[in-house]
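Sequence and fold:
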Amino acid sequence: MEQQKLPNSTLILVFGILSIPFCCCYGIVGLVLGIVAVVMAKKATQVYTADPELYSGYQNVKTGRILGIIGIVLSSLYLITYLVVIALYGMSGLEEMQQEMLREYGLE
């Protein structure tokens, strides 16, 4: 019997990869992509373990799951850091810090 490609294996890998660079979008986009990748990987793993000889592409699922977990951790850290900075300095303090950084690097 010919092996089928595991459903959504490539999509899981793409979401896992994208969750890492998108953690810089205030942590929310990367967090959502990482969670979606992990949930989809869990479902794909269940399908694969039920009948492993029918499917190929399980390596993409494992890699996407690992990258999704990394994206969740990085996004969570970024989001927590952002919220702590807002709690300590407020939005006006955050804007002042951003303006100071722009002046430092000569971008303003």
The mean pLDDT is 91.
